[in-house]
Design a protein that fits this description.
The structure holds two protein chains of two kinds.
Chain A (H helix, E strand, L loop, with lengths): L10 H11 L2 H10 L6 H5 L6 H13 L3 E3 L8 E3 L1 H32 L16 H5 L13
Chain B lengths: L6 E6 L3 E8 L3 H9 L1 H4 L9 E8 L6 E8 L5 E12 L3 E8 L8 E10 L2 E9 L3 H8 L8 E3 H5 L13
Antiparallel strand pairs in B: 1-2, 1-9, 2-8, 3-4, 4-5, 5-6, 6-7, 7-8
The chains are: A mainly alpha, B alpha+beta.
């Protein structure tokens, strides 16, 4: 779910970022640029790929706003643009926080719905098998098909 | 304290988010927790500070649901709703979802699947977004189809932007 209340960014923008990252060559290019800017020739070097092929990848990354071109007229080095990656990471983090918080509450609710019998520790709620529980071992009620 | 490895979230393909989580409960209970209003409003709240003043569910194919959350601190509200497409208790349901303040076209489609083993339930929730421009652009590129990118892989590019961007 997209949560406006958490100030999330436009899904199309995210889609472009994730789509750009969904390719191993492009990820390798970004990893290289994370170390410093580089020209198209320098970027093409580690790959058994023609320069036009690399340029195609660079276009996808540029359209997603993940890289930009430097001003040097001759070399036009590419550099990594942090903002879309940071936005994608922040979005993921907020999304993750929403679900993490919700699921923690759901854990507690499910425990309550089961009468607390899954609690480890001091509280013993079953007479039979209480020794097993105190030892931290699951009681027979957890066996498959016991629902 | 739950082991973080029981919870994963990742982007899939061009338009999907997939959330997986393991629960220490049989799936009938998890299904109920997801579909009975008096239970849903007790946990589907995100981080602390939100309540759910509206939680209505008509659980059947074609039935509607409606949620409204309110932030305690400033009373800001957020509403969402949709229609169920499929309901198969206790293993699966599919529903559309649309926020009141939708600023992109179309609806998302939520698919929830529950599988149970040895008293534990694995939830797989797939949210499919309807983004037409993205879909058209992506369909032209075979490399982008069906690639899953995990949160871990995204994190590898963050040294350039600083670790504080992600504090998991």
């Amino acid at each position: 779910m997209e949560l406006r209340g958490y100030g999330m960014i436009a899904p199309e923008h995210l889609d472009a970022t994730f789509a750009a990252l969904a390719d191993s060559t492009r990820r390798a290019i970004l990893a290289r640029l994370a170390k410093g800017e580089a020209s198209v020739l320098e970027l093409a070097e580690p790959f058994a790929m023609s320069q036009p092929a690399i340029s195609k990848h660079l276009k996808v990354l540029e359209r997603a706003g993940l890289i930009s071109r430097g001003q040097d007229a001759q070399r036009r080095p590419r550099r990594l643009e942090a903002k879309p990656l940071r936005e994608a990471a922040e979005w993921m983090e907020k999304y993750r926080q929403f679900w993490e918080g919700s699921f923690r509450r759901l854990d507690a609710l499910l425990e309550e719905m089961q009468g607390g019998k899954r609690k480890r520790g001091k509280r013993v709620v079953r007479k039979a098998g209480s020794l097993r529980q105190a030892q931290g071992r699951p009681s027979p009620g957890f066996a498959p098909g016991s629902e | 304290m739950k082991n973080s490895t029981t919870f994963t979230i990742r982007a899939q393909g061009d338009r999907e988010i997939v959330v997986t989580r393991v629960f220490e409960a049989p799936r009938g209970l998890v299904f109920d927790a997801y579909t009975k209003p008096e239970l849903v409003r007790r946990w589907l709240l995100g981080p602390d500070g939100w309540s759910m003043p509206v939680c209505e569910i008509d659980l059947r194919a074609g039935g509607k649901y409606r949620y409204v959350w309110r932030q305690d601190s400033d009373g800001k509200e957020m509403g969402m709703g949709g229609v169920y497409r499929e309901v198969v208790r206790p293993e699966r349901f599919v529903a559309t979802e649309k926020f009141d303040e939708a600023w992109y076209p179309g609806e998302a489609v939520d698919t929830i699947v529950l599988t149970e083993q040895a008293g534990k339930t694995t939830l797989t929730q797939t949210i499919l977004y309807d983004s037409r421009e993205t879909r058209d652009a992506v369909l032209k590129s075979p490399m982008q189809r069906g690639m899953a990118m995990s949160y871990d892989r995204l994190e590898r590019f963050l040294p350039a932007v600083g670790r504080e961007a992600v504090s998991a």
